[in-house]
Amino acid sequence: MAETALASERPRFEHQGIAFGCDYNPEQWDPAVWREDVRLMQQAGVDLVAVNIFGWAALQAADGSFDFTALDEVIELLHNAGIRVNLGTGTSSPPPWLTTRHPEVLPVVEDGTTRFPGGRQAWCPSSPVFRRYAVDLAEAVAQRYGRHPAIALWHVSNELGCHNALCHCEESTRAFRRWLRARHGSIDELNRAWGTSFWSQRYSDWDEILTPKLTLSSRNPGQLLDFHRFSSDELLAHYRAEAAAIRRHSALPITTNFMVTAHIRDLDYWAWAPEMDVIANDHYLDHRLGEPRAELAFAADLTRGLAGGDPWLLMEHSTGAVNWQPVNLAKEPGQLLRNSLTHVARGADAVCFFQWRASLQGSEKFHSALLPHAGTDSDLWREVLELGRIVGALDEVAGARVQADVALLFSWEAWWASDAENRPTHALEYLDQVHALYGALHDLGVTVDVVRPGADLTGYRLVVTPGLYLVSDADAAALDEAVAAGAHALVTFYSGIVDEQDRVRPGGYPGAWRELLGIRVQEFAPVLPGTRIALESGAGATVWAERLEATEAEVVDRFADGPAARRPAVTRRAGGGSAGDAWYLATLLDRAALRDLVRRVVTAAGVRREPGAGAEVEIIRRTDGETVWRFIVNHSAEAIDVDAHGTELVTGSTVEGLLAVPAGAVRVIREERAA
Ligand code: GLA
Fold first, then answer.
1. 620 three-state secondary structure
2. Pocket test residue of 159, 259, 329 for ligand 1, highest count of atoms within 8 A of CB
3. Mind listing the pLDDT tens digit for each residue in 446-504?
4. Class assignment of domain 617-671?
5. 0.70 exceeded by the pTM?
6. In the prediction, which pLDDT does 6 show?
7. pLDDT tens-digit map of 39-65
8. Which residues line ligand 1 (CB under 6 A)?
9. Scanning 284, 324, 511, 512, which has the fewest C-beta atoms within 10 Å of its C-beta?
């Protein structure tokens, strides 16, 4: 196992300005097309290209034989054009000869059936056979190109765990037992951790333990939670093994593309992030969600959190429609620019896409690309050229950090535990609460850092904790300490309920923060879908109520009806002295009411809001400590005016006083004086 280097010792991703690039899959095209591709990439200003992402079958047609001829040529073509390479290890999807010879590497899903090749990622994360082949390929690629001057960055596999995170094969079962032994030490400790005295589940030997396959009833939640942890760790171990092979041949930065997004939840990226040389994320607008645009902002802020506030790389997004949602919406004119620069505003130092040229065959042939099926005589290509120009005009922003007064606590472990098979209500999921609270802040034009529970909260005026069901004692204490030091807190229902092993803290909810909040919840009282709840202030709510008493806190609002009528619904415990106030919200407020409450909380906390910013206009600042760049993303159908003094980088104009930002446009001001 490679040792984890200290962050300061890690190789940094060095690039001239903001990178503009894409995945490039030349194996799908005739070599004559490669030349045209490189010429057009130059025309568009593309300067970072990911290759060999799905290259395994092309590089290794049979066991033991590598043929790098085509990849050599592609890398030379890119290099001669001054385009830098983000080189994949190519191990994401094994070629058919491997799965034919070694069917034991195939993944098994929770009903015990095997998933076959023919798609992608058909491999078990714990398979030593797969690991050996993958590391051999990564090593061969690194050996060949480790000193090639075109290489800027190493790209391990692709979206590890996108499809194959949870495997239940026999190899995974054995690996799970080893992992459990290391975590719990003894079978008695494991029995305690999982609460196996319930339903006669007590284990007497490690060999009795299985992965949580499908059962007739609901499964043991402790077992499920540990299986998620194990599965995330197994894929991280796979990453480490490939990264170690690369490191033997290259000192350049190594990463893999994360999936910080609403529909993938199997990887605990807080555990992964310290092992990346640079954080990279793939993000696609998800039109199955209520607020895809706010989710984009949330994902970007969370990715920045994973990077510890440093710049990160947007490794993939789309120029237009994807191919994997029920209805795949094209982007509106200008939306490509707005989406891309929202990521840059929120800390991205690279704007990259899946993929360069739209495929003619295969599952993704209707996925958008930089170069669409329609070719260069298309509105999309013209937008791509314009985007490339603008990204180039923003080069000076690279390296700058985002300024935020508010931290929002987010946890994958809490997500796994919270969305359990049996819980108080299935009408709400963890992310719904997270998005609701983030959305209210977004509506108010507040910039947010999304951080892990237990993170250093020094310097934040407000810490928001939406529905953080699971939290360890140590991480809970970090919030107490932040409030004692002057930060304000807003905690919402179903937070602080269980410890890290999903054990309820008794004595009234939320056991982790009863004292901090000055409240005690005796009973949850969720309501049926469609049922409306009124608060005494007139605010409307749904989904959740609870029977709460304010022990030390002031009651700000009460339930007017529903199962908790006349009980507190919003409370505030005044900090007094130098401590901050601790607010608690016991229901899911309607959007406008939640925004009103959050406005009240951010005002009391002294949080800075960007004048003119809200759901339709995003305003975010990046700074290098001296210069401030203010991004204004106008999603609305109306032109707006903002106060500005300085240079506007998109149009290259000087601004003295009022800057008009047309409908749908983005402007970036290098401020003459830090505002
Ligand atoms: C992911 C993958 C890409 C491609 C895109 C399509 O991000 O990494 O290979 O499949 O999805 O949206």
1. strand
2. 159
3. 999 999 999 999 999 999 999 999 999 999 999 999 999 999 999 999 999 999 999 99
4. mainly beta
5. yes
6. 63
7. 999 999 999 999 999 999 999 999 989
8. 158-159, 282, 284, 316, 322, 354, 364, 367
9. 324
Question: Which residues are CB-neighbours of 512 under 8 A, at least 6 positions away?
Answer: 471, 473, 476, 495, 496, 497, 505
What's the rounded mean pLDDT across residues 644-649? 97
**Is residue 673 over pLDDT 70?**
no
Question: Annotated catalytic, 159?
Answer: yes
Superfamily of domain 406-605 in the CATH hierarchy: Class I glutamine amidotransferase (GATase) domain (3.40.50.880)
| Pocket residue to mutate for ligand 1, from 89, 282, 357, 370, most atoms within 8 A of Cβ | 282
Break the chain into its structural domains and give their ranges.
Answer: 7-165+235-399, 406-605, 617-671
Cα of 15 to ligand 1 centre, how many Å? Answer: 24
Closest by CA position to 123, among listed 86, 81, 80, 93 = 93
Q: Quick one: pLDDT at residue 8?
A: 67
Q: How far apart are CA 635 and CA 667, in angstroms?
A: 12
List the catalytic residue out of 159, 171, 234, 413. 159
Q: How far apart are CA 425 and CA 526, in angstroms?
A: 7
Q: How high does pLDDT run on average in the chain?
A: 97
316 is known as an active-site residue: yes
Of residues 139, 171, 234, 316, which has the active-site annotation?
316
Atom of ligand 1 nearest to the CA of 322: 12
Superfamily for the 7-165+235-399 domain: Glycosidases (3.20.20.80)
How far apart are the CA of 287 and the centre of ligand 1, in A?
16
Query: Would you place residue 7 in the very low, low, confident or very high pLDDT band (cuts 50, 70, 90)?
Result: low
Stretch (H or E) spanning 153:
strand 151-155
Q: Whose CA is nearest to atom 12 of ligand 1?
A: 322
Q: Which residue among 56, 286, 316 is best mutated to probe the pocket of ligand 1, counting the most ligand atoms within 8 A of its Cβ? A: 316
* Residue with CA closest to ligand 1 atom 9: 354
Minimal-distance CA residue to ligand 1 atom 4: 354
Please give the torsion angle defined by the CA atoms of residues 670, 282, 15 and 23, in that order, rounded to the nearest 10 degrees.
Answer: -130
Does pLDDT of 4 surpass 60?
Answer: no
Strand ranges across the sheet with 617-623:
401-402, 617-623, 628-634, 666-671, 640-648, 653-661
Is pLDDT at 433 greater than 50 in this prediction? Answer: yes
Residue with CA closest to ligand 1 atom 5: 354
